[in-house]
Amino acid sequence: MPASPLDPAFIRDLDQDLTSTSTATVQVVAPFSGRMLHELPLSSKADVEGAFARARFAQLAWARAGFAHRRAILLRAHDILLERRERLLDVVQSETGKTRGQAFEEVFQALSVTRYNALAARRVLAGRRRRSGVPMVVTTRIHYRPKGVAGIITPWNYPLSLAAMDAVAALAAGCGVVQKADNQGALSILALRRAFIDAGVPANLWAVVAGDGDEIGGAVTAEADYICFTGSTATGTKVALQAARTLTGVSLELGGKNPLIVLDDADPVKAAMDATYACFSSLGQLCVSIERIFVERGVAPAFLREFQAATARLKMGGGFDYSADVGSLTTQAQLDRVSAHVSDAIAKGATVLTGGRARPDLGPLFFEPTVLSGVTPDMECFGAETFGPVVSVTVVDSEHEAILAANDSEFGLNASVMSGSAQRAARVAVALEAGSVNINEGYRGSFSSVDAPMGGVKQSGLGRRNGPEGLLRFVEVVTISRATGVLSLPRFGSDFARLAGPLLLLAGVLKAVRRR
Ligand code: NAD
To answer: What crossing angle do the helices spanning 67-83 and 100-125 adopt, rounded to 10°?
Structure first.
């Protein structure tokens, strides 16, 4: 298996875009082959501080340049991404070990969020009038001021799309970006950034740094005017605590233990096919993928038969084409975690319905899509996120029991409901404690709807990316009120004595005409 179809000179050229003045590097391994992909330069704390200083300077002109200028550049970047799509697919696959199909989802998502933010920013962030407190006496407007330079911290699993979902929104809102890449995802981010620089984004406006999470991630958190963190709940909590010291705003996109409910009126064949993709896309290394299935008893035998068969049929492989259905895990740590969750479940009495084994014959980090039954609370994989190709199936007796079981989690990121009745599915959807719920789909309905917010409740996060909500993270709202001079507001006791009656009368009139 080749480590990568990428030309080493192309990789070296991209690596040079990383902000690093030190000679320290780290070897990044290609998951498909286990061979070295590249030596990534590492950044120091001084590099992070320098990157913020340069980005702050560049941001002043970027914010002043206005929406039309930014939109034109971002739309040009969209077209460059489109032109370079095959190369981007190679980069994402080389670093993550995912299939070309799942890499395609990343590139498509990057295109969607680029287009969305370029075109939506003015509508969402243009200043506008608000109702004044005292008509004619004052007028009131709100103005959105870019926060400055955002610190964006991302994990390795969806390096291209996660970077785009935060960075492009920040740029569209008039902010600069200093991004801390995970070592395993840095190349994808650098390739994404290169398209934007080639489109006209000033090079100093978007810097990429890499290195130790605590040291370099901590330095980014310390310097940023706003922080977008994506990663585990444990690290997200650390970032939030650090940000609290300087009262810096944060959005936290964290882990999940996402449930899928199959109601007894669902088509078992379609539900099984959709569940297979929802559980094993990117081999489960996806924050919104499904790790728990609750199926109503009436449909359970048919669903389980189809789900097991569909899972067993998945073609696992590492090619740089569309021939495989599922790819490889990304790192040795991931393989260790997945293997530990499965061994622990088996040791404590779970049954493996499908899969359950590593596949070193295919490559060093392959692990079979695995379906477990009989998973109980004493098992690691019951409540903790596996972040791998492992799903538990539990048969329940009612819709109510399914909802209670699905909500019995510290997480609340994504959920899915399969049903033949739109009404019933909608009733269940609103009862689920999650930031997104997909009906008759696993996660792609909400994930692709970039005009709608994405995020989690409970331990799955704080704040939302995408949609207007995602853009509004990057601005301060300033309320600007102007006294018109037509009349003066009361200043002295004698003024109040004269005006209290008319003002109270005005309050009554405003209520009568239902003016807010
Ligand atoms: P992680 O928390 O270990 O690392 C995420 C990033 O944080 C990395 O770049 C890391 O270097 C950096 N980091 C580590 N310590 C830091 C610190 N003290 N300060 C600042 N940054 C620090 O997560 P991971 O294992 O790389 O990613 C997997 C996790 O991410 C899973 O839990 C998954 O569910 C979650 N995730 C969530 C979403 C979402 O949108 N909700 C998306 C993708 C992944």
So the answer is: 170
Q: Whose CA is nearest to atom 11 of ligand 1?
A: 213
Q: Which residues are catalytic?
A: 253, 287
Asked if 187 contacts 14 with a C-beta cutoff of 8 angstroms, the reply is: yes
Output the pLDDT for position 220: 98
In tens, the pLDDT along 184-242 reads: 999 999 999 999 999 999 999 999 999 999 999 999 999 999 999 999 999 999 999 99
From atom 15 of ligand 1, which residue's Cα is the shortest distance away? 213
CA distances from 378 to 129, 399, 435 (A): 57, 25, 27
Rounded Cα gap, residues 326 and 97, in angstroms? 9
In the 8-state DSSP scheme, what is residue 18? Answer: S
Q: Which residue has the tokens 């991209």?
A: 14
**8 A C-beta contact, residue 464 and residue 453:** yes
Residues of the chain with pLDDT under 70: 1-3
Q: Which residues line ligand 1 (CB under 6 A)?
A: 153-158, 162, 180, 182, 213-214, 217-218, 221, 230-232, 235, 238-239, 253-256, 287, 385, 387, 413, 456, 461
Q: Which domains does the chain have, with CATH numbers?
A: 44-254+467-475 (3.40.605.10), 258-452 (3.40.309.10), 491-516 (no CATH)
For the four alpha carbons of 84, 74, 225 and 435, in that order, the dihedral sign comes to negative
DSSP 8-state symbol, 205: G
CA of 231 to the centre of ligand 1 (A): 2
User: Number of C-alpha atoms within 13 angstroms, CB side, residue 485?
Assistant: 0
CB 412 within 8 A of CB 435: yes
Return d(Cα 155, Cα 217) in angstroms, integer.
11
CA dihedral 421, 427, 429, 434 (to 10 degrees): -170
Picking from 378, 19, 383, the residue whose alpha carbon sits closest to that of residue 181 is 19
> Coil, strand or helix: which one is 290?
strand
**How far is the centre of ligand 1, averaged over its atoms, from the C-alpha of 74 (Å)?**
27
Q: Which residues pair with 210 in a beta bridge?
A: 181
Strand positions, DSSP E, 237-369: 249-253, 258-262, 290-296, 351-354
Based on its alpha-carbon atoms, the radius of gyration of the chain, rounded to whole angstroms, reads 26
Per-residue confidence (pLDDT) for residue 516, from 0 to 100: 80
